[in-house]
Design goal:
75% of the residues lie in helices and 4% in strands. The protein has 310 residues and is mainly alpha-helical.
Length: 310
């Protein structure tokens, strides 16, 4: 491969966990197991919500969308990493890298938006229970999801097209297990000012604004719960949003830890990336189902039918 612009780039190198050659079999088994759990757990959530009429409510509608996005989000990075580990390879094609960046941004953005929409849903349910059916009607729920998809697709397309205009130097090594946008930009020889302006503007708008919306929703929720006179009422109200709060804390805690850190290419940065790209989607089905009687009942029906058919 000769130095030059993007037309001469055939492969990027994903160093990531491949730098630890001694533990490759263990890493392969670990990530394969987590990938299978993510697929099965989130598919069960989708099947349970779609098959049980009692779960045809806004909260579970958003949850099933989150499960679908988590499946896609994980499928963007883990299969390629598993193939590279198995083949003892570090390579990803130029087009494959751009494609991975595009879909990573799409589904990462959707995760952020859906968590925000779910926080708003809990805010309306707890703070305005009498108006909940009117406010969170099926049309509004569908519109919220469609707008989220539109924004995610648009931003990801803009950022991917901006990547196509860049020229790259002779160093095509990315110290990550997937094509991370910020690190890919550091490999460019041409001016990346526009790319960075768009990147940090969107991080500000699509990161801080949704997080602020979640924070505002939970401030109002806590305020409403504290005004409930009975302890049982407080517990019942908080239990409806406890699972969501756990997922938000895990997702934003690890995600912000990576992107606000100046040492995101380190081993610690990769571990944080694994937490929000792999561990969070894996834990979501457990977090949302273990303490939810309706979800447990629906999952038991789905599993019962599966074993009965077999």
């Amino acid at each position: 491969m000769e130095p030059g612009n993007q037309t001469s780039v055939s492969d990027f190198l994903l160093l990531g966990f491949s730098q630890d050659s001694e533990h490759q079999p263990i890493l392969f088994g670990l990530f394969l197991s987590m990938f299978v759990v993510i697929m099965l757990g989130n598919l069960l959530i989708i099947l349970a919500v779609s098959s049980d009429p009692h779960l045809h409510t806004p909260m579970y509608f958003f949850l099933s969308n989150l499960s679908f996005v988590d499946i896609c989000f994980t499928s963007t990075t883990i299969p390629k990493m598993l193939v590279n580990i198995q083949a003892h390879s570090k390579a990803i094609t130029y087009s494959g890298c751009i494609t991975q960046i595009y879909f990573f941004l799409v589904f990462g953005g959707m995760d952020t938006f859906l968590l925000t929409v779910m926080a708003y849903d809990r805010f309306v349910a707890i703070c305005h229970p009498l108006h909940y059916p009117v406010i969170m009607n099926p049309r509004l729920c569908g519109q919220l999801v469609l707008v989220s998809w539109f924004i995610s697709f648009t931003y990801s397309l803009i950022q991917s097209l901006l990547m196509l205009r860049l020229s790259f130097c002779t160093n095509w090594a990315i110290s990550h297990f997937y094509c991370e946008l910020a690190q890919a930009l550091t490999l460019a020889c041409s001016d990346t000012l526009i790319n960075h302006i768009v990147l940090y503007t969107v991080i500000g708008l699509l990161g801080i604004i949704p997080f602020s919306g979640i924070l505002f929703s939970y401030i109002q929720i806590v305020s409403s719960i504290l005004r409930i006179p009975s302890a049982d009422g407080k517990y019942k109200a908080f239990s409806t949003c406890g699972s969501h709060l756990s997922v938000v804390s895990l997702f934003y805690g690890t995600g912000l830890g990576v992107y606000l850190s100046s040492n995101a290419s380190s081993w610690r940065g990769m571990i944080a990336s694994v937490m929000y790209t792999v561990v969070t989607p894996m834990l979501n089905p457990f977090i949302y189902s273990l303490r939810n009687r309706d979800m447990k009942r629906a999952l038991q029906k789905v599993l019962g039918r599966t074993f009965y058919v077999q």
